[in-house]
Amino acid sequence: MNDTTLSVCSLAAEPGTKARGTVSVDLGTLTADIPLTLVNGTRPGPRVVITAGVHGGEFPPIDSLVRLAEGLEPSEVHGQVIICPVANPPAVYQGRLNVSPVDGVNLNRVFPGDPAGGPTERLAAWLFANLVDGADVYIDLHCGGIDQVLRDFVGYRLTGDPDLDKATAELAGSFGIEDVILGLTPEGGNSHAAAARRGIAAVLVEVGELGQRDEATSLRRVDGLLKALRHLGVLDQDGSAPAPIRQWVWAAGVTAEATGLWYPEFSFEADVIGEVTEGDILGRIVDPTDGTEHPVHAPADGRIFYGMHGLTVAPGTELAALAVPWDPDTAARADTFRAPGLGAGSDEADPRP
């Protein structure tokens, strides 16, 4: 039997119970109320932490976690599950952007944070100290934002620890998502990279695009989370076999070099965003003043996994990210891969996935 109380600050769940509430976090110049659901199972098992709402404008992950929190019953759970559907309230409720309206900082670039830093750095430090650091498994949910088309994928970082990398690879393959993108190092300020550096099996899950909330996407995502929880032994197995996966690594990111209007030549339909060859025209940036065109070329071969849907861009805006099939022999040649740029859309780009 599990006899351990699950608690986060003032919120607590005894074994066999579920607790829902908010925890107030001091960010220095303001406070933020973080919603949490704690599900404490009746039997021993791993502690799994799942977050969404790290970025504003990414609504499907938030909706799916609310649905999961509602349906997950402690009597069915082995271990403990901490669900945080809105990890970054200022960005979610006020900005609806990847950067916080409080300080202009992207939370998913500053993990594990700084408790003496600015508001977003303090938020990252609180999330790690109170949620992630005590986890056996960490799952961070994202999607294509309000200006971004995206193919569903799972991402994780290679650490060099064979046992951890094997466990994380198996977790990444458990969601029923065909495409898995490997980061070749655990460096950077992304949530799952910082967790991996602390020995936690951690993945990024990207499902949905354009920030669109629809029931079908949310239910598909909940189904994937339930598959992962069964794989982890948090829920009883249902006898289903893992779906086949394809492994990729990032090949390049494409960023705007001019201010203007973006006219891509790849499809906006996520299921047909396709293959490109180095030098192919990806689109054009047009100066609205005089019609001057700035062609944008693919910097490498690869498949487009996400792309800019918005019309207006400035220098540095991320336009697309390309990945290529993973060959383990390339592990010794990590520097030959150019990671996606540091634009607001990429969760795999700090500094190398």
Number of helices: 6
Mean pLDDT: 90
Share in β-strands: 25-35%
- Given as residue ranges, the uncertain stretches (5+ residues, pLDDT < 50) are 331-339, 341-346, 349-353
The helix content, as a percent range, equals 10-25%
- Cα gyration radius (Å): 20 Å
**C-alpha geometry:** globular
Q: Give the helix/strand class.
A: alpha+beta
Main sheet summary: 13 strands, mixed
Task: Report the end-to-end length measured between terminal Cα atoms.
Answer: 40 Å
- Give helix and strand order, one letter per element, not per position: EEEEEHEHHEEEHEHEHEEEEEEEE
Report the count of strand segments: 19
Please outline the helices and strands.
Layout: E1 6-8, E2 11-13, E3 17-26, E4 31-40, E5 43-51, H1 59-71, E6 78-84, H2 89-95, H3 119-130, E7 137-142, E8 148-150, E9 153-157, H4 162-172, E10 179-183, H5 191-197, E11 201-206, H6 215-231, E12 246-255, E13 260-264, E14 275-276, E15 281-286, E16 293-297, E17 302-308, E18 312-313, E19 318-325
Parallel strand pairs: 5-6, 5-7, 7-11, 9-10, 10-12
Antiparallel strand pairs: 1-2, 3-4, 4-6, 8-17, 9-11, 12-19, 13-15, 13-18, 14-17, 15-16, 17-19
Helix pairs in contact: 1-6
Name some characteristics of this structure.
353 residues, alpha+beta, 13-stranded mixed β-sheet, four-stranded antiparallel β-sheet
